[in-house]
Amino acid sequence: HVPMYVPQKWFDMHPLDEIQLPQVLDDDRADVPKYGRDLTWGVTPPPHSWIVEHGEWKHAVQAYLACISFVDHCVGRILDAFEARSDADDTVIVFFSDHGFHLGEKQYWAKRSLWDRGTKVPLMVSTPGQDKGQRCTKPAGLIDVYNTLVDLCNLPENKRLEGQSLTPLLRNPKTEWERPALT
Description:
mainly alpha; two-stranded antiparallel ribbon; 7 helices; 4 strands; about 35% helix; about 5% strand
Protein backbone atom coordinates (compact mmCIF):
# COMPACT_ATOMS: atom_id res chain seq x y z
CA HIS A 1 0.00 0.00 0.00
CA VAL A 2 1.06 3.57 -0.52
CA PRO A 3 2.91 5.44 0.68
CA MET A 4 5.84 3.08 0.17
CA TYR A 5 8.48 3.68 2.81
CA VAL A 6 11.61 1.59 3.23
CA PRO A 7 15.21 2.49 4.08
CA GLN A 8 17.26 3.95 1.22
CA LYS A 9 19.32 0.75 0.98
CA TRP A 10 16.35 -0.99 -0.64
CA PHE A 11 15.84 1.79 -3.19
CA ASP A 12 19.54 1.63 -4.07
CA MET A 13 19.09 -2.03 -5.06
CA HIS A 14 16.88 -0.86 -7.94
CA PRO A 15 18.62 2.08 -9.70
CA LEU A 16 16.23 4.36 -11.59
CA ASP A 17 18.20 4.00 -14.82
CA GLU A 18 17.62 0.22 -14.73
CA ILE A 19 13.87 0.36 -14.09
CA GLN A 20 11.83 -1.14 -16.92
CA LEU A 21 8.36 0.32 -17.32
CA PRO A 22 5.45 -1.77 -18.54
CA GLN A 23 4.31 -1.21 -22.11
CA VAL A 24 1.02 0.66 -22.12
CA LEU A 25 -1.25 1.26 -25.06
CA ASP A 26 -2.84 4.71 -25.33
CA ASP A 27 -6.28 3.17 -25.93
CA ASP A 28 -5.85 0.13 -23.68
CA ARG A 29 -9.01 0.87 -21.71
CA ALA A 30 -11.19 1.78 -24.68
CA ASP A 31 -13.03 -1.54 -24.45
CA VAL A 32 -13.70 -1.42 -20.70
CA PRO A 33 -17.46 -1.48 -19.96
CA LYS A 34 -19.09 1.03 -17.60
CA TYR A 35 -18.93 -1.35 -14.62
CA GLY A 36 -15.18 -1.72 -15.09
CA ARG A 37 -14.70 2.04 -15.42
CA ASP A 38 -16.75 2.66 -12.26
CA LEU A 39 -14.71 0.03 -10.40
CA THR A 40 -11.27 1.32 -11.36
CA TRP A 41 -11.25 4.93 -12.59
CA GLY A 42 -11.02 7.79 -10.17
CA VAL A 43 -10.94 5.45 -7.19
CA THR A 44 -7.34 5.56 -6.07
CA PRO A 45 -5.20 8.63 -6.62
CA PRO A 46 -3.03 9.57 -8.31
CA PRO A 47 -4.25 8.97 -11.84
CA HIS A 48 -1.79 7.57 -14.38
CA SER A 49 -1.73 10.88 -16.24
CA TRP A 50 -0.40 12.63 -13.10
CA ILE A 51 2.34 10.00 -12.65
CA VAL A 52 3.47 10.46 -16.26
CA GLU A 53 3.18 14.28 -16.33
CA HIS A 54 5.28 14.61 -13.18
CA GLY A 55 7.94 12.13 -14.27
CA GLU A 56 7.25 9.83 -11.31
CA TRP A 57 6.62 6.54 -13.14
CA LYS A 58 10.12 5.08 -12.73
CA HIS A 59 10.31 6.29 -9.14
CA ALA A 60 6.95 4.71 -8.32
CA VAL A 61 8.04 1.38 -9.82
CA GLN A 62 11.35 1.68 -7.96
CA ALA A 63 9.49 2.25 -4.68
CA TYR A 64 7.37 -0.84 -5.30
CA LEU A 65 10.43 -2.97 -6.07
CA ALA A 66 12.24 -1.59 -3.01
CA CYS A 67 9.30 -2.57 -0.80
CA ILE A 68 9.16 -6.06 -2.32
CA SER A 69 12.90 -6.50 -1.70
CA PHE A 70 12.51 -5.29 1.88
CA VAL A 71 9.60 -7.66 2.57
CA ASP A 72 11.61 -10.51 1.04
CA HIS A 73 14.48 -9.69 3.40
CA CYS A 74 12.17 -9.55 6.43
CA VAL A 75 10.52 -12.88 5.54
CA GLY A 76 14.00 -14.36 5.18
CA ARG A 77 14.89 -13.21 8.70
CA ILE A 78 11.72 -14.79 10.06
CA LEU A 79 12.42 -18.06 8.25
CA ASP A 80 16.04 -18.10 9.46
CA ALA A 81 14.87 -17.66 13.06
CA PHE A 82 12.18 -20.26 12.55
CA GLU A 83 14.62 -22.85 11.17
CA ALA A 84 16.64 -22.59 14.38
CA ARG A 85 13.65 -23.86 16.38
CA SER A 86 13.31 -27.47 17.41
CA ASP A 87 9.78 -27.73 15.98
CA ALA A 88 10.64 -26.34 12.53
CA ASP A 89 10.28 -29.77 10.91
CA ASP A 90 6.70 -30.10 12.12
CA THR A 91 5.25 -26.81 10.98
CA VAL A 92 3.33 -25.56 7.94
CA ILE A 93 4.31 -22.14 6.59
CA VAL A 94 2.02 -20.20 4.24
CA PHE A 95 2.92 -16.90 2.55
CA PHE A 96 0.44 -14.93 0.45
CA SER A 97 -0.68 -11.44 -0.43
CA ASP A 98 -4.22 -10.09 -0.36
CA HIS A 99 -4.21 -8.52 -3.85
CA GLY A 100 -2.05 -7.62 -6.79
CA PHE A 101 -0.93 -4.11 -7.68
CA HIS A 102 -0.86 -2.15 -10.94
CA LEU A 103 2.24 -0.13 -11.80
CA GLY A 104 0.78 1.76 -14.75
CA GLU A 105 -0.46 -1.25 -16.68
CA LYS A 106 -3.73 -0.31 -18.37
CA GLN A 107 -2.92 3.26 -17.26
CA TYR A 108 -3.88 2.29 -13.74
CA TRP A 109 -2.24 2.36 -10.31
CA ALA A 110 -2.91 0.46 -7.12
CA LYS A 111 -5.37 -2.42 -6.66
CA ARG A 112 -9.13 -2.86 -6.97
CA SER A 113 -9.40 -4.21 -10.48
CA LEU A 114 -10.35 -7.52 -12.06
CA TRP A 115 -7.37 -7.46 -14.46
CA ASP A 116 -4.59 -10.02 -14.01
CA ARG A 117 -2.31 -7.60 -12.13
CA GLY A 118 -4.98 -6.92 -9.53
CA THR A 119 -6.06 -10.51 -8.99
CA LYS A 120 -2.89 -12.60 -9.10
CA VAL A 121 -1.03 -12.96 -5.82
CA PRO A 122 1.86 -15.00 -4.48
CA LEU A 123 0.86 -18.15 -2.65
CA MET A 124 3.65 -20.26 -1.18
CA VAL A 125 3.18 -23.24 1.10
CA SER A 126 5.86 -25.23 2.87
CA THR A 127 4.89 -28.46 4.60
CA PRO A 128 6.90 -31.03 6.54
CA GLY A 129 8.49 -33.52 4.16
CA GLN A 130 7.52 -31.59 1.04
CA ASP A 131 10.00 -31.33 -1.85
CA LYS A 132 11.40 -27.80 -1.95
CA GLY A 133 11.17 -25.50 -4.94
CA GLN A 134 8.11 -26.99 -6.62
CA ARG A 135 5.98 -24.70 -8.78
CA CYS A 136 2.34 -25.21 -9.59
CA THR A 137 0.54 -23.34 -12.35
CA LYS A 138 -2.96 -24.62 -11.54
CA PRO A 139 -5.50 -21.95 -10.50
CA ALA A 140 -6.07 -21.55 -6.78
CA GLY A 141 -7.78 -18.97 -4.63
CA LEU A 142 -7.10 -17.63 -1.17
CA ILE A 143 -10.48 -19.07 -0.25
CA ASP A 144 -8.66 -22.43 -0.37
CA VAL A 145 -5.99 -21.58 2.22
CA TYR A 146 -8.12 -22.34 5.30
CA ASN A 147 -9.29 -25.72 3.99
CA THR A 148 -5.73 -26.57 3.03
CA LEU A 149 -4.53 -25.84 6.57
CA VAL A 150 -7.40 -27.85 8.04
CA ASP A 151 -6.41 -30.77 5.81
CA LEU A 152 -2.67 -30.51 6.51
CA CYS A 153 -3.24 -30.30 10.26
CA ASN A 154 -5.72 -33.20 10.28
CA LEU A 155 -8.47 -31.06 11.79
CA PRO A 156 -12.19 -31.73 11.33
CA GLU A 157 -13.54 -30.54 7.97
CA ASN A 158 -15.97 -27.61 7.99
CA LYS A 159 -18.62 -28.34 5.33
CA ARG A 160 -19.89 -24.72 5.41
CA LEU A 161 -16.69 -23.39 3.83
CA GLU A 162 -16.49 -22.92 0.08
CA GLY A 163 -12.75 -23.41 -0.32
CA GLN A 164 -11.07 -26.59 -1.41
CA SER A 165 -7.90 -28.12 0.01
CA LEU A 166 -4.84 -27.58 -2.18
CA THR A 167 -3.11 -30.56 -0.57
CA PRO A 168 -3.30 -32.69 -3.75
CA LEU A 169 -1.40 -29.95 -5.60
CA LEU A 170 1.16 -29.69 -2.80
CA ARG A 171 1.84 -33.40 -3.12
CA ASN A 172 1.98 -33.31 -6.92
CA PRO A 173 1.78 -29.95 -8.77
CA LYS A 174 0.85 -31.80 -11.98
CA THR A 175 -2.29 -33.34 -10.42
CA GLU A 176 -5.39 -33.07 -12.58
CA TRP A 177 -7.20 -29.92 -11.38
CA GLU A 178 -10.49 -28.75 -12.84
CA ARG A 179 -11.37 -26.05 -10.32
CA PRO A 180 -11.09 -22.45 -11.57
CA ALA A 181 -10.02 -19.49 -9.46
CA LEU A 182 -12.86 -16.99 -9.02
CA THR A 183 -12.48 -13.32 -8.30
